[in-house]
């Protein structure tokens, strides 16, 4: 879901009206015709003209109010979700099969603000008869569309799913997507309802008939845990038997002074660079098997703001780097995938850049307890040569 002109750090995009007036033709003469109507008739005409103008003004005002409602700012619609919650979950084991076999789980959900509320990170941990469940959801608000997108990943796979997208109306949120399930294309719906300061309800449903009917398969009730409900990081324990590589990003946790050196026009032969200075904050998710980077930097070329969600896949022993740009188009880019070896991390993807398919590489190196280096490079010859276009240094 990415249309980048210049992608940096797995997708950072650093980024006359003419009034048409009709010609006026004038003959130089003004024609006046004496009004021969009786006085009463003239007053009635003026009265009805004034009444018509009043109705027109009222209609314009109503239309403006309706447009304002339609374009309301919804970036705080998920504010109710911030904090720590006790959750009870009911899950249908075999959706869209006619089965009625449900299982129950109980656990904890922790939600914290990102970008001062324009995004949220939710962590969930629950246990039931089918075992342990651990997942996260990243919520992103799109200010131009006035819509929310939610991206889910489970710790068992470490891969971000495609988002559900939607909005809140009349105190209820509905988000949708289309995806493949057991070889069939279906619709998925998430509904957030019964919202109070201390509780709410979440339900996922599937439809295989174009949205005519919906079968719920995940129902969660959440009650605020007032003793531990804060906006801080969820204190999840480290996995007892973490797979090899699951803590390769531990060096990056903390607050960092960040310097960025950026090539303005990659793959053009240009050698014009610009610089930014700012701060990066990296916090722990899933006890370290994932992490969230928040970058904020400024320079002569403008302001950069973004989120990097790193997820470990315990099956492949690889990391995926998922990037979200700040600004008007906060949707997640194609992930970079790779791993660490001999103290360095290398991550790759294939993407479109200025109408061409290229390869992109992210690298972490020079790692010490108090510093590290990040570098991004592009290749338009299938990886034979690489041009560096982004260098970022971190210092505590």
From TrEMBL:
Write down the superkingdom of origin: Bacteria
Specify the species. Mucilaginibacter frigoritolerans
Q: What is this protein called?
A: BNR/Asp-box repeat protein
């Amino acid at each position: 879901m990415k249309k980048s002109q210049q992608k940096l750090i797995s997708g950072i995009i650093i980024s006359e009206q003419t009034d048409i007036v009709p010609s006026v033709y004038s003959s130089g003469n003004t024609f006046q015709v004496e009004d021969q109507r009786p006085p009463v008739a003239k007053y009635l005409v003026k009265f009805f003209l004034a009444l018509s103008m009043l109705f027109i003004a009222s209609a314009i005002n109503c239309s403006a109010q309706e447009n304002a409602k339609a374009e309301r700012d919804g970036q705080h619609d998920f504010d109710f979700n911030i904090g720590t919650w006790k959750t009870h979950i009911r899950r249908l084991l075999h959706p869209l099969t006619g089965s009625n076999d449900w299982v129950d789980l109980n656990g904890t959900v922790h939600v914290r603000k990102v970008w001062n509320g324009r995004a949220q990170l939710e962590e969930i941990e629950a246990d039931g008869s089918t075992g342990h469940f651990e997942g996260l959801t990243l919520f992103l608000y799109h200010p131009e569309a006035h819509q929310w997108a939610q991206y889910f990943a489970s710790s068992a796979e470490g891969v971000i799913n495609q988002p559900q997208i939607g909005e809140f109306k009349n105190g209820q949120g509905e988000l949708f997507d289309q995806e493949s399930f057991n070889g069939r294309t279906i619709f998925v719906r998430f509904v957030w309802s019964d919202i109070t300061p201390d509780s709410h309800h979440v339900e996922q449903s599937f439809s295989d008939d174009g949205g005519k009917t919906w079968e719920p398969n995940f129902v969660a009730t959440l009650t605020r845990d007032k003793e531990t409900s804060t906006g801080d990081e969820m204190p999840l324990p480290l996995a007892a038997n973490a797979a090899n590589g699951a803590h390769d990003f531990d060096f990056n946790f903390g607050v960092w002074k960040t310097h960025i050196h950026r090539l303005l026009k990659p793959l053009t032969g240009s050698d014009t660079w610009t610089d930014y200075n700012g701060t990066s904050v990296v916090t722990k998710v899933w006890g370290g098997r994932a992490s969230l980077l928040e970058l904020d930097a400024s320079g002569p070329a403008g302001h950069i703001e973004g989120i990097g969600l790193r997820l470990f896949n315990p099956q492949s022993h690889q990391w995926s780097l998922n990037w979200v740009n700040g600004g008007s188009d906060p949707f997640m880019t194609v992930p970079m995938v790779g791993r660490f070896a001999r103290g360095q991390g290398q991550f790759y993807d294939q993407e479109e850049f200025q109408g061409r398919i290229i390869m992109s590489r992210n690298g972490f190196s020079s790692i010490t307890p108090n510093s590290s280096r990040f570098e991004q490079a592009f290749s338009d010859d299938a990886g034979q040569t690489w041009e560096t276009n982004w260098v970022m240094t971190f210092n505590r």
